[in-house]
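We include the pair:
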Amino acid sequence: MIDILKSTYIITGASSGIGRSLSYKLAKKNANIVLASRNIDELDQIVKKINDSGGSAFSIQTDITNINACKTLITETIDKFGQIDYLILNAGLSMWSRLDEINDITHFEKLLDVNYTGAVNCVHSALNELEKTRGSIIAITTAQAMIGFSKATAYSASKHALQGFLEGLDMEMQGRINIINVYLGWIKGTNLRANAIGPDGKKIGNKHHKHSNKAIDLEDCTNRIINGIMKRKKAIYVPYYLKFIPFAKLFLRNWLFNKISRTIDSEEDK
């Protein structure tokens, strides 16, 4: 098990949800926290709470789709803390729509820019520093990185792209950097679904964002993530049964597809 003490974490998408929760909890474990997001006002409030309670954090307004902004994020982190031990790729954008409902297919580009290209920008900018510390890249991803979901074709595609990138990078690094994938199911207490864009490219808001009783609570989710990081797991599944998706996809494909379709339809009806 690793020691979080005085490790330096960069967390993208840190202004709300999972990123915010991880920031508070890791700071309580005496880690240095660098919070990155486009929403600087929210970041500054989180940083103030952390620092006022004796923690160590600072914020950098960052648009991860801009490579220069990502380079600045890394440079300022090194200037402040001298090293980077963990890069948590948490920023994400979702889309909730059938493909045949979308008039402007360029909406797909928004998801790829954030979920794939933005993550690649962060990784490329931080790679040399992470090699120096034999650090870790932690991708907060989803079951949809393993299997496509109906009404989420764009989101599934962007997460598959990131999955392939990280698998290839893991081979290239040959253990010099640890790569951890965090596969999430439905999580209560985040704004991911409310902030998802619909077929017109606009946020869907509160429509379709209620979760089933099987959804995992946000605080439980981030506790499991931190526990997995400390144990240096290669994959973290929240809930645990997501680990069976690759097996079911291979041997029980029709059953799995029908199960997912029924689940998506039931979520739509809420």
Summary: The chain has eight helices and nine strands.
